[in-house]
């Protein structure tokens, strides 16, 4: 058994509420917890990125950049961490390099320390620019390997990708199990394989509890030499979130792996998050028990809800078993992409269409772009017969998709000019033109209204 001391990253304020509460948590509920979390002894706090950037503006009425700045002001000891979708930044499509670079620069300037960088297809070309810019800006670049189960996703595949990420200058590696499907002995073999292959940088494990295996996977990963595990405070853990901080800390206590965190303070924060979670009860709809279907069909929870919604609209809920059978066939045709945003939506939607309309008789624009190569290079070759059915005789691109995207910041600056207050607003508009513009307009209208009210109360302008 390895004698490494394991560290814990707390995901409560990002993936915890993204997984359990539809990413609806507002900044006002995060602020009171920060200074206490800072004292617990975490390796880092994952507080930003993923879907939080979008939902801050779309649903919460919060400025994501202000959220990051406020969080950083309250943390004296613990590094901040975010999830960055590589060339997709925090969106669902590829953006130009100037948008990506400026996003990373402003993120570092506003207080981000660790960037967990992943690509939905594990295409290193799509990760290269974000890794390079993060390093240049003084951030911690964590290269991510997305886990999937297929004939091509072998231990050797994961080890080789980790070696490539280390050679690209990454400061650490993350093995990301976004669906909660990694088995304990498999993660042991992967981590051991990475260590045996000469991976010298820290290895972090990210699992969801969806199948009920995540805590067991963490135990075996740490035994194999993993350095860091992702957990959430108990009242925001398990289900589709991460394993509980307190449980894992207690399991490793008084061993060479002891994370030495303040469990008493965790218990205090568990009470706090329990009360906060109750505020979002309308979004708290995830399964209260392990979902065995994810082990059979490798279907993440988000895909399951999409399947049910699409089939219900078509009055075809009885055909769900056919969709489950079709999904791995589509995944194979598409080159075995890991089922993570956005590839999970692309594969899942096409499986539904194939069942309802016939194989590749109807295809979304995203599927066509995927077959044209605009999402990147999948882990295995695409089925050329399927590609021909979908895009006929069109030839796919052979370069990195972002190489074909012109700079996007100039247009975003023009759009943002009438409503912006700071340079970060330009990036928000570049990433989410409609959502950000609406948010910035509402922010300006609210500010103007407040200014008018203050002016009415001022004797300087309205002498009595």
What does this 3D model show about the protein?
The protein contains 20 helices and 8 strands. The chain is α/β, with parallel strands linked by helices. The protein has an 8-stranded parallel beta barrel, surrounded by 6 helices. β6, α8 and β7 form a beta-alpha-beta unit. α2 (27-38) packs parallel to α4 (64-74) and α14 crosses α15. The longest helix has 25 residues, at 433-457. The protein is globular and about 60 Å long.
Kindly summarize this structure in a few lines.
The protein is an alpha/beta fold and 464 residues long. It has helices at residues 12-20, 27-38, 52-60, 64-74, 97-109, 124-136, 155-167, 184-196, 214-224, 245-252, 263-279, 293-297, 301-313, 320-333, 343-357, 365-371, 384-391, 409-416, 424-431, 433-457, and strands spanning 7-10, 44-49, 80-84, 114-117, 140-146, 172-177, 203-207, 228-231. It is built from 20 helices and eight strands.
